[in-house]
Amino acid sequence: GKGEYDHYMKKEIHGQPTSLANTIEGRVEDGEVDIESLPAGTFTNVEEVQFVACGTSYHAALYGAQLLKASDIRAEVIRASEYDSASGPVDENTLTIAVTQSGETADTLQAIRKAADRGARTLAVTNVVGSTIARETDDAMYIRAGPEVGVAATKTFSSQAVSLALVSQRIAADIPHADQVDDVDVMLESLEDLPSQVEEILETTDAERLAKQYIDSDAFFFIGNGLGHPVALEGALKFKEITYEHAEGFASGQLKHGPLALVTERTPVFAVCTGGDDGKTKTNAIEAQTRGASIVAASPDDHPVVDAAEAHLSVPDTHPVWAGLLANVQLQLVSYYAADLLGRPIDKPRNLAKSVTVE
Ligand code: M6R
């Protein structure tokens, strides 16, 4: 049951220190990634990786693909429902990864079947042991997030992103031409702190106050670049899904190519600034501010965006690869509190199903 929580979604947001610890458990040993179902050598022949996924899982896939590209590995991310038109060439050196919390999403199942028909090796990254997609793929990696009841994916997103980061390092270690990320040791070491840093956010977050402050806005925009981009997209998806308010996520630099026309003093802009290459986010957030919008920065306390911002959601200091996932927890909380203030049926938003088994 929900225990002390009003909603499953809140319980599941608060479950992330535990779910993340379970995702990581035993998978990093002596500075190396060790995934039980994917032993060293599994990916030696891989020349290109394609991800197929929908919704929140698509955002996790965007995150994973960026990490592969950082290791000089070709990667593309395809919305599973667009597989026919969006997939590039596929052969036996292609690895197609289905990212799917439920393992039952029809669009994703069809896409992975088509990839397999065309000769790809297939891998499922999923939360559900024995799910259809896990059974049909060559290999499966389980994200171990535990059952998620709320329709809005929360703890499964963070566990997927961490799992894909681990898979990307496993692949990079196997492929001879891949460049391991320079500070892979630091990155893997800081992963250990992720669960306690989520806990820190849960104990100190200002999300409820911010939700109250901005609840009467006309629309809610989320921007980020680099690894902040998928976090911005996910922030907006969660917000619209459970509040029914208009929310959009953009790559920071794209704001001025159209969406800026929507920006007013009644459209707060959530700027995901989590280190790495996030310079464009600050400059574009300030462009929006010049048009009257408030900046809500999700960033470490000492990030330069904080001085410019009207409001701040604090992200504990960590490696840039994990910082976006911490920012995401803050954004989950803002969505939750905003939806609660509006009296929405948070765990079962209208028109949506937890698992979408029709194409
Ligand atoms: O089970 P899957 O991860 O394949 O589901 C895909 C999407 O339907 C899902 O991620 C959806 O976008 C989320 N529940 C939204 O919070």
Report on this model:
There is one protein chain. It contains 14 helices and 12 strands. It is of the alpha/beta class and 359 residues long. Helix content is 43%, strand content 16%. 55% of the residues are buried. The model has no long low-confidence stretch (mean pLDDT 96). The chain starts with 7 loop residues before the first helix and ends in an 18-residue tail after the last helix. The protein has helices at 8-14, 16-24, 55-70, 83-86, 106-117, 132-136, 155-174, 184-191, 194-204, 207-214, 228-243, 279-290, 305-308, 320-341, and strands at 28-29, 32-33, 48-53, 74-79, 94-100, 121-126, 139-142, 220-224, 247-251, 269-272, 295-299, 311-314. Helix 6 links the parallel strand 6 (121-126) and strand 7. The protein has a 5-stranded parallel β-sheet, with helices on both faces. It has a 5-stranded parallel β-sheet with strand order 9-8-10-11-12, with helices on both faces. The chain has a two-stranded antiparallel sheet with strand order 1-2. Helix 9 runs parallel beside helix 14. It binds 5-amino-5-deoxy-1-O-phosphono-D-mannitol. Residues 54-57, 100-102, 105, 108, 151-153, 241, 355-356 line the site of 5-amino-5-deoxy-1-O-phosphono-D-mannitol (M6R).
